[in-house]
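Closing statement on the adenosine monophosphate sub-project.
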Amino acid sequence: MRSSHSSKAALAATIRVVLKHDPRLAERGRVALTNAIREVLEHDPMLADAGNAALAAAIRKTLWPITLPPVASGKAALAAAIRNVPDFPKRGIQFKDITPLLADASLFRQSVDLLIGDHPPCSIDAVVGIDARGFIFAAAAALQLNAGFVPIRKKGKLPYKTHEQSYELEYGANTLAIHTDAIQPGSRVLLIDDLLATGGTAAAAVALLGKLNINLLEISFLIELEFLQGRSKLHGIPVRSLLTY
Ligand code: AMP
């Protein structure tokens, strides 16, 4: 089956609407969903272009009879899956351990959905993730948005020509890097990291992206430690954070 770029985008957007309506469908399985879509499109390949409502109805009809177990959902469920580890990696730091959230398929998927927000598939050219936990969410978001994934890494890890940006840590300094040709100028970009604390890391990432002359639409974080006021370093760029402490 051949389908144009725009009909694919419309199809992807419709499927997102259907899944948002009942997140348990996503849980149930991509195989059932894929089969349902294939069946509908094979039956009438014009449907994707002609009517999203008809397509959505057909997908619902195919999947609705399946009995689904309830799943935990919402931000409270995400927050409950984050483990506080006191005094890690050093005394006085309350480390937000996201590994229990990542290990739960439904919570991981929900967090990626929420990080993407209202950006429809194909509306973003590149999702940038910050070394290292930012990669996990940014790569998953990139797949979902049909966008490329671009890493911002710690200095010395990227093999080709890089731009570099240093920033202050509580003790000492750190340097982040991006390949000079990582993103085309003018591209629409979403930046994702796991946690906004003092904002030094994110501000350095923003400075690197500035060197590439891209259009940074939004920065999304799973967690924001509001009391550290990291947002103030991000000067007017829209910031989305799912959980605030
Ligand atoms: P900052 O530059 O101060 O905003 O720190 C943000 C970066 O440090 C993020 O990439 C986080 O992964 C990490 N980070 C800072 N504080 C914490 C924390 N309390 N728990 C987990 N990760 C943290």
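The beta strands are 83-86, 94-97, 126-130, 148-154, 162-168, 173-179, 188-196, 215-224, 239-244. With this model delivered, the sub-project is considered complete and its resources will be redirected to Aim 3.
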